[in-house]
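Hi Q.,

Before the meeting this afternoon, I wanted you to have the S-adenosyl-L-homocysteine prediction in hand. No need to reply - just skim if you have a minute. The sequence and ligand are here:
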Amino acid sequence: IKGSSFTREINQSVNMSDNTFKLIFACLWIIYILIRRPHVNAYNHSRNKRGKTTASELVVFVSLTLGMLILPLIWVMVPSNLYDLNLPVWLRLLGVVLAIFSLLYFYKIHQCLGQNWSPTLEINPTHKLITKGPYKRIRHPMYLQILLWVIAQALIISNLWASFSGLISWIVLFLIRVPKEEQMLIAHFGQEYKEYMKETNAIIPKMMK
Ligand code: SAH
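Predicted structure with the ligand bound:
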């Protein structure tokens, strides 16, 4: 009897910390949305003509929505220990720290990219090539930021499906979107973008020669 009440206590504390992480994860997502919101509003007000939604953009959108939002949301809402990865609390806390860092970085990138940001691939009439700040050494800081976010998500969530879904959707984003985006930017900026490519890497910062 003693043994079983001890196990129950342990189980209870595990559930409690799982619920705490669910709450923290939901709060982090609210901050994510609050950071993005003004930029979505500005985008909606400044454009009457949207970029066309191509099949590949749709694949990226559906994959990110499923992997970063729907599956994690199911994990938050459904009380279940099924497919729990049982990651240690310290590792899940490390995920929280990484997520906070990712959010600060996200804020900074949006400030720097300004009106040039768009949810789908497009060039606006006053588009300027940004090569400073977060864009100085890498061409895709926002995609690096999403990578940090999905790693953080995997650690915080500690559930097989909801943890790996984010990582898989990031791979889809990286493989499908980056080549198309660079093609589009080369077509528009020509030599200027090609020079910029020489000075930078895609997501691993290029160190000074
Ligand atoms: N790939 C970038 C930007 C993502 S937002 C990043 O990871 O930070 C997508 C839009 O940003 C695209 O429609 C593209 O037109 C624009 N964009 C990408 N790189 C840019 C740059 N260096 N300067 C200005 N706009 C850029």
